[in-house]
Design a protein that fits this description.
The protein is α+β, with helices and mostly antiparallel strands. Helices cover about 45% and strands about 25% of the residues. The strands form two sheets. It has a six-stranded antiparallel β-barrel. Strands 5-4-2-7 form a four-stranded antiparallel beta sheet, with no helix packed on it. β11 and β12 form a beta hairpin.
């Protein structure tokens, strides 16, 4: 444009000069009108300028995680689809068979008969625990001086009470009565302790006390019965839909949890035979037809969300990137639309790439408005440092 203006000016001066020399009037110099001033497309800011492209807000390149024969491709190029809509389907027969089997296995473990057996197991485990506990108390607790320890504890309390009352009583009748009662309690506790000790020593000397091996056996039986009862109760809670403590164990509980995991895995396997849209958008590419075999990881559908675009710079150099800040306002020149849009830097990549031997960084700019006719891949120019 500047070149055209200069040529017009030279032409005008030349014509004027000719008119002066020949004495005749020169033709009028045509007026040049610019439809859009250059300054409105690229304001002179003195700041950093970089090229960029428009990028759709979201893009997805969809592939199966499992292989199989493609039976249906509902997606069509350019179609608008909703989140969750099926785009491609694989043959689901084998996956459906595995799911049906997993459902039957879990249903068997959760059946009324299984629940009734779990209830019976709890009752039996409780009876076994009660018997083991009684045996444990009769042998192990007595062997460990249970009665003697109780008597010694009672004597200590009675002794302490007697000393307290004796040192704090008044000289009246009620005070003397309290001292006498505390003394009698002390004598009774002393006699009980002496008898408990005598009984214990007599039992040990006559061989009536349990041997250490017997103690170990009875203790083990008691612990096994206690653990079996806990496992039976946890399993009953699990099959009945109740809450199971964290870290609960047991063979039956493990079997139930495995059946549930197998059902979840079978459900995931069946779901993996359907390629669905992760968000609402436009089908940008369809790379498969019904009857083909899909390979895990092979991109079959490209999906893009063109409801909103942002800008990614392509040549922001390592010399200029230190002057750019996240959050700063920029001016985006939409060249193809002959329009400017304000934007804001939302991210600057910490990793560099190379462009023609130069080190560059990608900056992402969110547009404040979304003009009509935006298309992914359009070239733009970004003028940084144009904010207030």
């Amino acid at each position: 444009m500047r070149l055209k203006l200069s040529l017009s000016l030279v032409l005008g001066l030349a014509l004027a000069g000719c008119a002066g020399m020949g004495g005749s009037s020169a033709p009028a110099v045509p007026t040049l009108v610019l439809s859009t001033p250059v300054a409105s497309l690229a304001p002179a800011t003195g700041g950093v300028t970089a090229s960029g492209i428009l990028v759709a807000a979201r893009e997805a390149h969809l592939a199966f995680t499992v292989g199989g024969r493609v039976t249906n491709v509902p997606a069509a190029l350019g179609e608008q689809v909703e989140a969750g809509q099926v785009l491609v389907e694989l043959d689901p027969v084998a996956s459906q068979r595995e799911l049906d089997q997993a459902q039957r296995n879990l249903a068997e473990l959760n059946s009324p008969g299984a629940i009734a057996n779990a209830q019976l197991a709890v009752a039996q485990a409780r009876k076994a625990f009660d018997d083991a506990q009684t045996n444990y108390n009769n042998w192990v607790v007595n062997y460990q001086k249970g009665a003697l320890l109780d008597a010694q504890d009672s004597l200590a309390k009675a002794t302490a009470r007697y000393h307290y009352v004796a040192n704090h009583h008044d000289l009246g009748v009620s005070g003397l009565i309290q001292v006498q009662e505390a003394y009698l309690d002390y004598i009774h506790a002393l006699q009980t302790e002496q008898k408990a000790e005598s009984d214990y020593l007599a039992k040990r000397s006559s061989g009536q006390g349990a041997s250490q091996s017997t103690v170990d056996l009875i203790t083990g039986q008691y612990e096994v019965a206690k653990a079996s009862l806990a496992e039976a109760q946890n399993y009953l809670s699990a099959v009945s839909g109740g809450e199971v403590p964290q870290g609960a164990t047991g063979a039956q509980l493990t079997e139930l949890e495995n059946a549930r995991s197998q059902l979840a895995a079978a459900q995931d396997q069946l779901a993996a035979t359907r390629l669905v849209a992760p968000f609402s958008g436009t089908v940008a590419a369809v790379n498969v037809v019904a009857g083909e075999n899909a390979v895990p990881g092979e991109i079959l559908i490209d999906l893009t969300d063109v409801s909103r675009f942002h800008v990614e710079t392509t040549d922001l150099s390592e010399r200029d990137v230190p002057q750019v800040r996240v959050g700063e306002t920029v001016t985006v020149v939409l060249k193809d639309l002959n329009q400017n849009v304000a934007g804001q830097v939302s991210a600057i990549s910490p990793l560099a790439s190379t462009l023609g031997g130069d080190v560059v960084y990608k900056a992402t700019i969110d547009l404040e408005t979304q003009p009509d006719r935006l298309r992914a891949g359009m070239s733009v120019e970004v003028n940084f440092g144009t904010g207030p």
